[in-house]
Amino acid sequence: MVFLPVIFSCKKDNTSNSDEEKPQDEQVPEQPVNPDAANCYLVTKPGSFSFPTYKGNSFIPVGDVASVEILWESYGTGTAPYEHSLISYLAYSSGNEEDQAGTISCTVPSPMKNGNAVVAAKDENGKILWSWHIWLCKDYDPDETAQSYYNDAGVMMDRNLGATSATPGDVGALGLLYQWGRKDPFLGSSSISASTQAASTGEWSKTWTNETIGTIEYTIEHPMTFIASGLQNGDWLYGKSEWYRTYSTDFTRWGAKKTIYDPCPKGWRVPDEAEKNEDNNYENIWSKTLGSFETFTWGYDLENLGINFYHKFGDKDPIWYPLAGYIHGTSGQQGVGLLLNVKNYGFWWTCGGNTSLYIEHYNAQHIRPSWTTWSRHCYGCSVRCQRDALPEAQSDEQSPEN
Known about the structure:
By secondary structure, the chain is mainly beta. Helix content is 4%, strand content 27%. The protein starts with 23 loop residues before the first helix and ends in a 15-residue tail after the last strand.
């Protein structure tokens, strides 16, 4: 196979959009949603595709792009791919107008290989302006395999974000892991039975939050850096401090109205979480599905190391939840930034950030549909995307043109 070179573009002559000078987190509530843009693009067949250089699902161009680069590629196994194995060609073309986004063009070689990659746009100084997750899953149609959960709770993908399979026992079903509120993924395990991080190209790092590092701007510029939490708020995003604790956090990074930091493909988002009810519980998609907040047990599959929620969450078989473990995000004996407890634990984020679906098989089969997680935003956990409400004209567009 001949790999084509990565093409670098020339710096545009126009000046940056005025919104570029505003802090990233101040932009979230005010931006209209762009249903044709996202932080993740699902690619299902070999060939060429392109996407606009907008920030997430907004209409904000990322700025003056001077070059584009593949940051990492992974099959999700113990074998790292050769560079450009998943994406063989990458190029950038600028927009025609000052406030218009440019376009990144990619080529997926044939035969196509399943996996994940992240590509970035950089300025003339090499600073990352934005990055996008390319999810490569041959012939996967999320609409065809979507699963409607009971009690009209919502429509969910049949697999974790970044997973290349929904088959029980397949390592491809584990998917990727996310710190709450961050758009860029981290590697999951290359084994369903051991906490062995998948191999990839690129160089990963970890650090601890502070006033400089624990910012949205830093995460945009360092999408491969895992950020451990501060003191009491358990968040990678640095909070206001008093002498005895760090107490504040921000819950607007993800939301029921899809934000520019949402990691799901267009047409999908991080799943629901509602405000507290009269009993002081946060309802989310799983508690609404079950009609209960109570901890329960449900047939753990000892051979395939996960749980099939067929007839519990919905009527499709299987509704497979592999216990993909988590990346540890606080200091302590377990070690910051380490992948832990694959096959023993699983956590799935909600958009509200107060709760998750929590499955424990370490000592007992405990499944908690609305487990409190606001203090663990620094952890790397699974995401399973929920179908987003889109204008009718956009509802059938789930992947870039190939």
